[in-house]
Amino acid sequence: MRIFHIVNLKTVAGIERAFCAFVSAEKMSSMQHYVASRGVSSRLAGTLHKNCERVFTPGVWRGSRFPLVPRRGIDREIKKRLSEVNPDVVISWSSATSVSALDWCARSNTPFIYWEHGRAWEEASRPSRVYATLLEQADRIICNSSASARMIGHFWRQGGKTTVVPNGLRPECSVAAPVVREFEGDAEVTVGFAGRLVPAKGAVVLVHALGLLRKSGVPVTLRIAGEGPEKEGIVAQIRRLGLSDVSMVVGFEDDMSRFYRGCDLVVCPSIREPFGLVSIEAQASGRPVIVSEVDGLPETIDVEKTGLAVRPSEAVGYLESLGGSTSPLPEFSYFPDRDVIGPPRVVSADDLAESIAKMITSPDFSKMSRRAASFAREEFSFDVHVSRVCKVLHDVVG
């Protein structure tokens, strides 16, 4: 099967890593992969050239984007490459550029699959005709969570086309054997956070929860892995609350498995999270997680057995009262406990602190640690993930 992927690989983040793991999977080795991306990060180039037949970079000339290439020129080049490859199926990885392939697919009777990785939340806030067209004309929409499928069904009435394929645990995250965590007496507990330091991730709430725990005598420390525009503000809050000696902002972490092993539990207090890769990666390392009960995050845990879900109770203005920012944030969130889509809400620092205290004082913590590792590695196995995608491909191609 010849697959033509349209994806943005200029940076290295969740979608880009997922794409590289997908084309590198053993089950995909019998298929031919062709890629169109407006630029390729040097950190991904080796993987792409090893596992893909061709990598096209429309709008890029001699390694640098040529600023005067009009959109119609890029569209024309993508159609030209499609005609050269004559693929059996085209997959758009949440890429707006892929709209240029729709006409070619319709004329050649080639199936078009749109793979939703979270763009629905942005589009619900700022609707574009391009995104609506992609969903309307797609033969199938793969959603990375039930929350994503719910958003697409609610705002674009395309729920009948959706197939939920949860993100898989990247192979490198399950190489090392998990280490079960146990606490002895008043041992210091390290709470971890990983993700971009932007308002939607809620890191500032966790900093204040740490402050509350320390005030009540709970011996907790905090490690934050991530970069982003809120980093300076978060560091300032850590200083203001007198937490500098018990907090560490490590920035970008290349070896996430090592980071998780340095924590006792991991917290994901997001305001918007279509799925939650950090949650399953942390669990795969044997780390129980605490997540906000919003969007796709609750789908990543076995509640009360591998982690806890905290219901968000505060309006977004609460972030500013903690020294955080409310821009940019989505206009809508999905609340799975009530099956409701509405304005985003924020987990309170008090509720988060209470959940952390509950977890670390539980006599079943070591059981939760053990269950987390087996749950993530079994439920989100990358082989299972690839098999589910392959089934969609064969169903669509016929």
Task: Provide an overview of this structure.
- The chain has 398 residues and is α/β, with parallel strands linked by helices.
- The strands form 5 sheets. The chain has a 7-stranded parallel sheet, sandwiched between helices.
- Helix content is 40%, strand content 18%.
- The relative contact order is 0.12.
- Strand 2, helix 2 and strand 3 (54-56) form a beta-alpha-beta unit.
- The radius of gyration is 22 Å and the shape is globular.
- The longest helix has 16 residues, at 382-397.
- It folds into 2 domains: 2-168 and 382-397, Rossmann fold (3-Layer(aba) Sandwich); 172-379, Rossmann fold (3-Layer(aba) Sandwich).
Feature tags:
alpha/beta; Rossmann fold; 2 domains; 7-stranded parallel β-sheet; 40% helix
Radius of gyration: 22 Å
DSSP strand count:
19
Structural class: alpha/beta
Shape from CA axes? globular
Estimate the helix proportion, in percent: 25-40%
* Total DSSP helices: 15
Major sheet strand order: 3-2-1-6-7-8-9
* Biggest beta-sheet profile: 7 strands, parallel
By CATH, the architecture of the largest domain is named 3-Layer(aba) Sandwich
CATH fold name of the largest domain: Rossmann fold
CATH class of the largest domain: Alpha Beta
